Amino acid sequence: MPSDQPSAGTPQPGPIVRHGGHPHVPERTHEVHPNVILAVLCSAGVAYAVLSSAVIPALPTFQHALHASETGTTWLLTGFLVSASVGTSVIGRLGDMYGKERLLLWTLLILAAGTLLAAVSDSLGMLIFARVIQGVAGGIFPLAFSIARDEFPPNRVAGSIGLMSSILGVGAGFGLVIGALIAEHLGWHWLFWIPLVVTLIAAAATWKWIPESPIRAAGKINWTAAAVMSTGMTVLLIGIAQTSTWGWGSPKSLALIVAGTLITATWVALEARSDNPLVDMTMMRIRGVWTANLAAFLLGAGMYSSFIIFPEFAQLPKSTGFGFGASVLDSSLYLLPSAAGMGLLGSVTGKIARRYGSKSALVSGSAVTAFAFFWIAVQHAHPYDMLITSALLGVGIGLAFSALGNLIVGAVPPHQTGVASGMNTVMRTLGGALGGQISATFIADNVFHGLPALSGFTDTFWMATGFLIVCVLAGLLVPQARAAATSAKLAAEPSPAG
Fold first, then answer.
1. Is the pLDDT of residue 33 over 90?
2. Which residue in 337, 296, 307 sits closest to 431, CA to CA?
3. Cβ–Cβ < 8 Å for 438, 290
4. Of 13, 31, 315, 445, which is the most exposed, with the fewest CB atoms less than 10 Å away?
């Protein structure tokens, strides 16, 4: 079956500026091997992904050490999530306009600054502020996708983007294990000192080995649109995140969710009429883009549900009749097959895309993920049931996430790669936030003798199964190669009014 990638490495027509056409872009004096660039990009992605999840198993430690409430410590996740959603889309657009290598370097330095601040923090407020700074670095992924498309030979683009797409899941999975291990044996400050070293090495390697992008998008940043978008997403995510404390029916939760939705809708309306949009809504209407964004949202909801639910399920005492009585560290090990599967699939995604096409990989991966959640919903009596599920999730999510990066890149012209990839990552984050909070609600609403009841977990597994079945349908709507290429070409052409 032919691949559905429309020559992602081949520049499309559009308002772009190349080397020699931009006063601030130096000519390259030497070529860097793609393997070196890929290694640098992957190390940057791993540092961010590990930081995104490493604090989760250590939340009780933070609560005790910083004399904080459970509600207060959850802001270590909420603050990071909100900042990542805003930063990812804006930084992707900045990279398209001012250079991906330059923005990647600054993003890594921002991540390093936030991580250093977290490592020396001695109060919850200071640590939350540091986590907000760290979250901005979500822009690493759209920048990395853009650099791969600009710098790699066409036959290397699909595999490289697929590998980097899988890193967010792989790193987050390993981050849970590493976080539990470090918090138990070294102390919580080391959760940040160790990733700080990796981040600084990645920043230095970026400065030395990643050449500046030869492609630019014309125009300037619409800061009004950026402010409205940031406000809408922030209010919406805070409203969703606080449902675990206030409840979904709380007036405060409903007010924030409705307000965030209305502000975000206002942003969409402003962008649609803008001559200089932050995110081109014409691009967002491309079938290959909106279907990939819908799939990212649904996959994110399923993946983050498993990250949150599996360790908690395993830690519950055997006296509940279903828990495994595992320690914090042991419970995190149940996610290792998932992380390993994502890494394995990410490493061979180029071959899969060339032979079967990224659309087939998305549909197949979503179907395997749906089956994994179905399996754990009906088979959860023994630890090996969770290990089987985890392995299936690694294969399914690894296939699907790797395909998403390539589908987005193939659906848009080169000068829109950063912003399109950024919005796809944001949709994954929004899905994760929603899925995680619904899972928390199911568990909180099903308690027996002071401990979570089995029904709360099975409800979550059935919910995730439903999300992934819809994801399969979204994948079937993704256009084939020729249609995606045509859409990308039309999006690159100026409108008659322009």
1. no
2. 296
3. no
4. 31
Cα 422 to the center of its chain, rounded Å: 9
Residues 6+ apart with CB under 8 A from 386: 310, 313, 314, 324, 334, 376, 380
Residue environment code for 41-51, b if the CB has 16+ CB neighbours within 10 A, otherwise e: bbbbbbbbbbb
Please write down the HEC assignment for all residues of 191-225: HHHHHHHHHHHHHHHHHHHCCCCCCEECCCCCHHH
Would residue 327 be called left, alpha or beta, if left means φ above 0 and alpha means ψ between -120 and 50 degrees?
beta
| Token duo for residue 76 | 């270590």
| The pair of three-digit structure tokens given for residue 198, joined into one six-digit string | 């990796």
Q: List, in sequence order, every residue forming a beta bridge with 447; answer none if it has no partner.
A: 452
pTM for the model stands at: 0.80
Please choose, from the candidates 306, 309, 298, the residue with its C-alpha nearest in 3D space to the C-alpha of residue 428. 298
Sequence-distant (≥ 6) Cβ neighbours of residue 150 within 8 angstroms? 100, 213, 214, 215, 414, 417
Contacts for 56 with CB less than 8 Å, ≥ 6 apart: 77, 175, 176, 179, 307, 308
pLDDT for 494 beyond 50: no
Average model confidence (pLDDT) across the chain: 84
Residue closest to 399 by CA, chosen among 244, 247, 295: 295
Query: What per-residue confidence (pLDDT) applies to 110?
Result: 97
CB atoms within 10 A of CB 197: 12
Rg (CA), the chain: 22
- Both structure tokens of 337: 């097959």
What is the C-alpha separation between 254 and 257, in angstroms, rounded? 5
Closest-CA residue to 200 (of 130, 138, 111, 134): 111
Residue 122 φ then ψ, to 5°: -130, 10
C-alpha angle 86-264-479 in degrees, rounded to nearest 5 = 85
Say if CB 212 and CB 99 are below 8 A apart.
Answer: yes
pLDDT of residue 41: 94
pLDDT 10s digits, 349-387: 778 878 888 999 999 999 999 999 999 999 998 999 999
Q: At 372, list the tokens.
A: 């994994």
Indicate left, alpha or beta for 99 from its phi (over 0: left) and psi (-120 to 50: alpha). left
- Pair 418, 92: CB distance under 8 Å: yes
Q: How many CB atoms lie within 10 A of CB 20?
A: 10
pLDDT of residue 165: 83
| Residue 493 half-sphere exposure toward CB, CA atoms < 13 A | 8
In the block, tokens 């919580």 appear at 188
490 has pLDDT over 60: no
Sign of the four-CA dihedral 18, 24, 26, 31:
negative
DSSP character at residue 130: H
Burial of 153 (0-12, 13-18, 19+ CB in 10 A): exposed
